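Methods: example folding runs. The two proteins below were folded one after another, and each record is reproduced exactly as written to the output file, sequence line first and structure-token line second.
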Amino acid sequence: MTLKALMTAGIGAAALLAGPAMAQAPNSQDWAQRQAQNETVSAQRMMSGDVTNGFNMLGNVSDIVLNARGTAVEYVLYEVPFPYDVYTAEDGFVRWDNIEVERGVGSGLDLRIDGEASAYAKEQLQLTRAEAGDRLVSRIVGSDLTFSDGQMREIDDIQFDPESGMITNFVVEMDEDSLFDEDTRLVPAAMVMLDPQGVWTVRQPVTYNWTVWAM
């Protein structure tokens, strides 16, 4: 079962269990925001998952590469873990438009190669780490967003649309002095851009009324 089907089933089951208490929830802004968040996938969770062909694991997700504009996933890289790397299996990559996102083991999300598509050998990706630069999700998560007032906050996670691979939100901890995630907010991707110097910038100040991330 795909992630979208699982999420739809989960939302439906929750509504049935809640009964009359949720009768007015679909009309509330909070409900709409929470539902929108439930329909996205986390970069952190994808990085903890595997690439599969529906029957076997091909490898562990090692990184996610965005497109040249930094707006959506283009490739997912994977590495074959020990001891499988001793045999004929090799590291490789898959295109986002050839995969389905599924629930994995634990908190991870698995990426299943869809239909007749296949994985590619790593030699087929004509892109170096230096050329990928700020397109690598492993580099983006943990880096800073620079807001219009000059303040910076660390990117905790990135949310994607599971079908298109488009970035929907950046997850940011606004309380820079906290040891824990106590004031986590969503910064819509439409307000964020990657400038020519490789800096992720936001068109609003830190004090803007950002949506609280409902985990």
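Second run, written to the same file directly after the first:
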Amino acid sequence: MNRANFSHCNLSGAVVTRGFLSNTTLDFAKLHHTDFSHAQLNASSLVKCSYSCTYFDQTHIDRTLFEIDSTPGSENHFKLIRPFLHSVRFQGMLDYMLSGEMKPVRKHVPRKWSAVVFRNATVSSAALHFFDPHRTFGDGSVTLTSGQRPDHWVDERLDDFAFDDAVQVWGQTYERLPEEDGDTGLPR
């Protein structure tokens, strides 16, 4: 589904298993019991969707925005199970379950495309460590429910342009990570 626009659609119960969504807009869509297992979301937008038991099992997600609706009463429960995340941005209050591991970065894949960016989000320490803190970026708009903010995060709340610039600057220095284990790709 290239360049499809499903804004404000009710996709409850839809099975998008193994689907390919490129430049697809799902803003404000109702995604209750929607299954994106083994699908590919590339350069897609999921702004203020209503999530309830929405599954992303082994889903390849690249250059995609998840902006979570934080208004009282909104439903925001989705499951990321063994996802393959590359340059994904989460914004808003997150209530999700994670299992498995983030796909390790391989030497031939530029690291800046294997990162997770948080903005205007509340993130648990467990979620942060699931993604590997060295491969995440956030500003002062991000609240951690426990634990410490990574040292490379910006402490002040940035406007849209300053945030994009900070992410770009961080992406240029992203190669400077702690020494990694050759087998797992994770910091030693």
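Comment on the second run: Residues 19 and 109 are 24 Å apart (CA to CA).
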